[in-house]
Design brief:
CATH architecture of the largest domain: 3-Layer(aba) Sandwich
Helix content: 25-40%
Shape: elongated
Length: 441
């Protein structure tokens, strides 16, 4: 009996000694001051999602999530230029059933029926100023542009005057803390157009714009966090339609296409370029390419490994109008290798600028470029797995570019990590499971 008592005592002592020493988490602002927080950026900062800027998306914006956490360490109220309804600006998408040109029905993003409240387009400047200064469509230099509200209706609806700039309205608020995430659109609009319209912002000019912006934002002693630019070509928008997506199921199809391209291949032999050829199974799509030497062959070729098709590419044209086989896919739906390289070089330069400026102005650097690298193969966060797969990946909304609420929560937590480290703060993280992902019918 004594032996059993001794053993029990030893076991209890061992259990007690192994009990973790859990400290009560006590939020702290560290060396930062969150009394007046403003967020500056583009559509992602604004809360744009599912192809539109609508009220619920704005409520789920990552700056609004951050502001809720900042309130626990002295942060003030955070106002946003909210839409009046769930349609807002743009063409909002939800998941629904669609019947294609071949008569097949499947689950797909569809436009929401309805007419937005016309007051969504009216000025709400008299209700401002607004802490969320995210403006869909904004590039780095747009932040400095006077009268930008006359060119961009998203800013125009809450700009303090017709002649003001985004940065001027931000500075007027005398913020004590700011977040800045700008530069995605400096390459994204070019990429989404397949490199056929718009242009990539010159990296040297980007550095000058960013330096001027940060010089002004920090002039009153404000502290902040700046995020860099992830690889935009890993977005679902560029990775949902496979380049080798032409499925040929009969030898008759193969023979017919090979015969049709025999004259092309004769010319290809003379110019020393690859044939257009087909076989049973998955084949590379035929695309438009008017650069030399393909301009001498009718301006077409087969897509190469590593080249990308955009989500704007109409699916019925692939299925029923013979795009990608008998007819080339127009180049505005294609990112070729040269265009992808130009995007990659620009982003790398932007990010080097951001790193340098973060150090120069003693800001928290949110390394979203590195954080988001794993998302393409699988990012595990709070025990949940996220990928860049369209619809089912869990990170992105139904436009394939902007985050869904859970994705925004993850981004907000990356900001919190960087802010805590830079300013010795203890801001509590967000429970991402509190927020919804894609809603299925």
């Amino acid at each position: 009996m004594k032996f059993k008592s001794v053993v029990l005592f030893i076991l209890l002592a061992m259990l007690w000694s192994c009990k973790p020493d859990i400290e009560n988490f006590s939020p702290s602002k560290g060396t930062a001051d969150f009394t007046k927080y403003i967020a500056i950026g583009n559509s992602t900062t604004a809360g744009y999602a599912d192809g539109a800027l609508y009220r619920q998306g704005q409520i789920y914006s990552y700056p609004n999530m951050l502001a809720e956490q900042f309130k626990k360490v002295g942060g003030g109220e955070f106002t946003q230029p909210l839409m009046l309804d769930e349609l807002g600006f743009g063409g909002k998408r939800i998941l629904g059933y669609v019947t294609d040109c071949a008569g097949n029905t499947s689950l797909s993003p569809i436009l929401v029926n309805g007419t937005p409240n016309p007051q969504n387009f009216a000025s709400i400047a008299d209700q401002g100023p607004y802490n969320n200064m995210g403006v869909p469509g904004a590039k780095s230099f747009h932040l400095l542009a006077q009268g930008y509200g006359q060119m961009n209706p998203y800013f125009g609806r809450f700009a303090s005057s017709a002649s003001t700039s985004i940065i001027a309205d931000a500075l007027a608020q005398q913020a004590t803390f700011f977040t800045l995430w700008i530069g995605n659109n400096d390459v994204l609009t070019y990429a989404m157009a397949g490199g056929e319209s718009d242009s990539i912002t010159n990296p040297v000019a980007y550095g000058q714009y960013m330096g001027l912006i940060l010089q002004q934002l920090t002039a009153n002693g404000a502290k902040g966090a700046i995020a860099n630019i992830p690889d935009i070509t890993s977005l679902p928008f560029f990775n949902t339609i496979p380049a080798y997506g032409l499925a040929l199921t009969s030898q008759a199809q193969v023979d017919q296409l090979n015969a049709a391209y025999a004259p092309y291949n004769a010319g290809a032999d003379q110019l020393g370029v690859p044939h257009i050829s087909f076989s049973l199974g998955a084949n590379p799509f035929v695309i438009q390419d008017n650069t030399p030497p393909y301009n001498l062959l009718g301006g077409l070729r087969q897509i190469k490994q590593g080249e990308l098709l955009t989500l704007y590419l109409p699916q019925d044209s692939l299925k029923c109008a013979y795009w990608g086989s008998a007819k080339p896919i127009p180049s505005q739906y294609v990112l070729d290798l040269a265009e992808i390289e130009a995007i990659s070089v620009a982003i790398a330069s932007y990010n080097q600028t951001i790193t340098t400026l973060a150090s120069q102005f003693n800001l928290a650097l949110v390394d979203l470029s590195n954080k988001m690298k794993g998302a393409k193969t699988g990012l595990v966060y709070d025990g949940l797995r996220f990928t860049t797969t369209f619809v089912t990946g869990g990170l992105f909304s139904l436009d394939g570019v902007h985050f869904n609420p859970q994705g925004n929560a993850i981004v907000a937590n990356y900001f919190i990590d960087a802010i805590n480290q830079q300013y010795q703060a203890k801001i509590s993280k967000i429970n991402i499971t509190k927020y919804p992902g894609i809603v299925f019918p």
